[in-house]
TrEMBL record:
Transmembrane segments: none
A Pfam family that the UniProt record links to this protein: MmgE_PrpD_C
Coiled-coil features, chain-numbered ranges: none
Domain MmgE/PrpD C-terminal: 257-419
MmgE/PrpD N-terminal domain segment(s): 6-234
SUPFAM superfamilies associated with the record: 2-methylcitrate dehydratase PrpD
Protein name: MmgE/PrpD family protein
Taxonomic source organism: Ferruginivarius sediminum
GO molecular function: lyase activity
Recorded superkingdom: Bacteria
Family: Belongs to the PrpD family.
Length: 452
């Protein structure tokens, strides 16, 4: 299996990729960049950028920090970018991985490319595609092999190492060491610990990105590592047999709202019912969903991290404001008394109908009782953004503009959207990297400080 993986990493060409997979990768690139840039101005995003700039500075050979411009060592540039992405829970993901590929692979791609990998747009997209295909399979493999539910950093590090090996032009032996070391050093944090105790740790992608970049650079310099169990084990060989023919990048989901995927069905149900009821007239909200979703709870989050790993508060905020973006789950919004009072009326109930469908599908049913005795029911509701309920390109562009409007002017945003979604493959990427990595425009109003 190792030989097939190596051939894919280094031999993939644009002519080998269906247009649907190529375009899906473009969408993933734009969506992840938008979330990452918005995340640079969360408390976590700012903290990580300032920390790595102070502790791990680099000269002209370093990689720029996203929307900052300061150069640091490539592994920590990737870490800070992944931390920013993870800090605003609006990034893409894969249902069977129960986690996120792009949160580490896109920041890793930027770190490698800004230091060692000048290329055209077509090659940039191919590198990211390699990362998605390797990381997604590694994630599914880890869930099959391990009885524990690990964070995304435990497996998306392999996607970072794979695209890094391609970027640096490593041979087979050095590429195998990069993958082996990335798997060995990747953080196998327990996901439910973060669900129960939300914090800046989030989904572990910060250290997944760091491990993937560091392992690849070490392998380039001669560091030898054992093979990757997630690739070589006979128990997962079927997952790798269709590499290059089944395109897992097309299976990624996109989030309409910047909160945990497990909360998205409840938000869709709330959005469905909000036109029929005034928030001040709600006496009770009863949400039936899968058990893991119930554990999100989150009636009175203390910070943005807790608000993103919650159901009750985001549902109340959406019903209260008629929308749910970054500003509704951060800062002063978290202490809004009317939202907190409404969140306190949310009851979460595990339901075997939806347990049976999880994790391949995420569903809920919402019932709202009003003070005048009316009862509204959403019916069984899933979320938009899955492959079967995909967001359109226009919706992803709208999401992008909403997230980064406080940070970038319209001209810079237009260039970013055009380059990622529609740019010619032989176009240079210097301007794209500058738009993503250089500091924000001082003339644009910055979003108020957000926590989490």
């Amino acid at each position: 299996m190792a030989g097939q993986v190596q051939d894919f990493i280094h031999g993939l060409r644009a002519k080998d990729v269906p247009e649907t997979a190529f375009h899906a990768t473009r969408r993933c690139l734009l969506d992840t960049i938008a979330v990452m840039l918005a995340g640079t101005h969360t408390e976590t995003g700012r903290l990580l950028r300032d920390h790595v700039a102070a502790v791990y500075p680099a000269g002209a050979s370093g990689a720029r920090l996203p929307l900052d411009g300061r150069r640091v060592a490539a592994p920590v540039a990737a870490m800070a970018g992944a931390g920013a992405t993870d800090s605003l829970d609006g990034h893409d993901g894969h249902r069977l991985c129960k986690g996120h590929v792009g949160a580490a692979t896109a920041p890793g791609l930027l770190a490698f490319t800004d230091t060692d990998g000048t290329c055209d747009l077509g090659e940039l997209i191919l590198r990211l595609l390699v990362g998605y295909e390797i990381a997604t399979r590694a994630g599914i493999a880890l869930h099959r092999i391990s009885p524990q539910y690990h964070t995304s950093g435990a497996w998306n590090a392999l996607g970072v190492a794979a695209l890094g090996a391609r970027t640096l032009g490593l041979d087979g032996e050095h590429s195998a060491s990069a993958l082996g070391a990335a798997e060995f050093y990747a953080p196998r944090g327990l996901m439910m610990r973060v669900i129960d105790q939300p914090s800046m740790l989030k989904d572990g992608s910060q250290m997944g990105a760091f491990a993937g970049v560091a392992a690849t650079l070490m392998a380039r310099d001669g560091f030898r590592a054992g093979s990757s169990e997630l690739i070589e084990s006979n128990d997962v060989s079927d997952l790798w047999a269709d590499l290059g023919t089944c395109w897992r990048v097309e299976e990624q989901y996109f989030k309409p709202y910047p909160v945990c995927r497990w909360a998205q069905p409840a938000l869709e149900a709330a959005a469905k019912l909000q036109g029929e009821v005034l928030a001040d007239s709600i006496a009770r909200i009863r949400i039936r969903t899968f058990t893991e979703g119930v554990r999100l709870a989150g009636h009175a989050p203390a910070n943005g991290d807790e608000a993103q790993y919650a159901i009750a508060f985001p549902v109340a905020a959406l019903l209260r404001y008629g929308r749910l973006g970054a500003d509704e789950i951060a800062g002063s919004a978290l202490t809004d008394r009317r939202t907190l009072d409404l969140a306190a009326r949310v009851e979460l109930i595990p339901d075997d109908r939806f347990n049976a469908r999880f994790p391949a599908e995420r569903w809920c049913e919402m019932e709202i009782a009003t003070t005048d005795g009316q009862v509204l029911n959403s019916g069984e509701t899933t979320t938009r953004g899955d492959p079967e309920t995909a967001l359109s390109d226009a919706e992803i562009v709208e999401k992008t503009r909403t997230l980064i409007a406080p940070l970038l002017d319209s001209e810079r945003t237009d260039r970013l959207v055009t380059a990622t979604l529609h740019g010619e493959l032989d176009t240079g990427i210097g301007r794209l990297l500058d738009d993503v990595l250089n500091p924000p425009d001082t003339s644009v109003r910055a979003r108020p400080a957000a926590t989490g």
